[in-house]
Every structure is written in C-alpha cells, then in structure tokens.
Amino acid sequence: MNAPQPLTDTAAVAAARNLPCETVTSVKHWTDRLFSFRTTRPRSLRFRSGEFVMIGLAGPDGRPILRAYSIASPSWDEELEFYSIKVQDGPLTSILQHIRPGDPLILKPKPVGTLVLDALLPGRRLWFFATGTGIAPYASLMRDPDTYERYDEVILMHTCRQEAELAYGRELVESLPDDPLCGEYAHKLRYYPTTTQETPSLPGVRTGRITDNLLSGRVFSDLGIPPINPEADRGMVCGSLDFNTDMKAILEGWGLREGANSEPAEYVVEKAFVG
Ligand code: A2P
Fold this sequence. Notes:
Blueprint: H1 6-16, E1 21-29, E2 34-40, E3 52-58, E4 64-70, E5 79-85, H2 93-96, E6 104-112, E7 125-131, H3 136-141, H4 145-150, E8 153-160, H5 167-175, E9 189-195, E10 206-207, H6 210-215, H7 218-223, E11 233-239, H8 241-253, E12 267-271
Parallel strand pairs: 7-8, 7-11, 8-9, 9-10, 11-12
Antiparallel strand pairs: 1-2, 1-6, 2-5, 3-4, 3-6
The chain binds adenosine-2'-5'-diphosphate.
C-alpha cells in the first residue's frame, strides 16, 4: 500500500485555515506500536512541564485532524518531542506513524493541562503513575529542576504489556545523570517499571499492574517506603481511561484529593492520547 497522501498536503491545508505548522526534525520507532518524533519549536511557545498541545496533519478528506499530545521534551529544549502509539485504524496515528524529517506538522502553540507541579500542594514524595504512552508528560517533568526542588523523592511507576515498550522511558531515566540541568538530582528519581503480559528479563523490571502493586503494598515494601498518605505523598496519573478511573478510586481511598491549576491538592489526572 502507498503511504497516505495527507502527509504532503498538510502544509497547504494548514495555510488555507491559518493553522501554524512546524517541521519534523527526527523520528525514532521504538516498537511496531510506538514511536517518538521531534519538531522545530515555535519561538513564541512557552510551556510548563507536563502540559500538552494540539498537533495534527491533513486527513484524507483534506480536513485537519488534530489531537492533544503531551510535550515530552523539557522546557529548555530548543526543539519539541512527542511520544506516540500507532493505531492502525486510528484517524491521526495511522497517518502520523509515516512522518519523516522535513515533513510539516500542524502545531497550535497554546499549551494547557492539569499535569503540572502548580496543581499540587507541597509534599515529600511525588509519584508519576503511567501506562503506555502516558509516560510522555513525565519525560518532560523528570527533566525539570523544579520537580526535584519541590520534592525530596520522585517515583516513576510505568507499566506496559511488553518489556520492549518500556524502552523510551528507561533510556530517559538512565540518561538523567548526564542531563545538563537535572543530573545533580538524578539520585532523587526512583524508577519502578513493570510488565503485565511478558516475564521481564532486564534487571529492575518487575511484573504487575500499577494498581495491583499499590493495593498489595508490594511497591512500598520493594522501595522501603511507607504507604501513600495525604500528608507526604502527591500523585500524577496519566494513562487509559480505565487506568485513570481505577487510580482515582485508589488515591481517593487513601485520602488524596484531586487538584487543579486553580485549586492545588494532592493528585492530578490526565488521559493519555490514543487513536
Ligand atoms: P494489562 O496487560 O493487564 O491490561 P494498553 O497497552 O492496553 O494501553 O495497556 C498498557 C498497560 O496498562 C498494560 O500493562 C495494561 O495491563 C495496563 N492497564 C490497562 N488498564 C488498566 C487498569 N484499569 N488498571 C491498571 N493497569 C491497567
């Protein structure tokens, strides 16, 4: 099958509708279901780590298809990075997975979102809970010095079906000691990756859903820390709708309240984009 036409039509479709475009600078395919890509960054774009923007391409009918994507790059990076799933019949990702360096990408430079440090009250420990591509906002937050200045300890729980799907996050965690701004804080980040549909072979990778490992208390004993409580712990949740719903119930059961930009509290939630 030929690569879909919409890739080459995006610049024209965007111009006709006055939508701003950026240029893809690199693409990396991590598995047959996951890829990341980088784009030029609009000069005017300032964002808070954890926020998302609308990005897209021209669809087969000549209309733009825009979806919310968390910015995975840190705020000081001169380019932008995104991390995406490939859904074979997904309206956007079925086309987006074919992008190459030099291709135009529609990008509205209006960042928004609740997965930001400002929506949380101060605390001792910050938890990043992610399934699948839900790790994208944490890829930015884990490279923000503010994260480590506000919390003594940051714990990243990331769960995927297969071990290969953890690679994007694992590489970021492993490279943190070399990060120009956050290297000195790398010891504060604790990484708890798990798989649910494959027995892991890499050291440090465990099994089980995040929800199960929290409810059984396994993660607390593995890390040697007390159970989550509203005095010390703050949480950020980013995954599928079902995951987010289950996590809300667990965190609220432990006394944490959902926060927002306008009213910071103990945890925040955002849905990872799919489709
Ligand atoms: P599982 O394999 O047990 O369904 P997906 O690829 O479907 O988005 O899932 C990504 C990861 O999120 C998988 O490891 C999956 O586990 C896990 N997951 C899906 N739904 C939930 C949920 N409601 N609670 C906890 N983990 C979930």
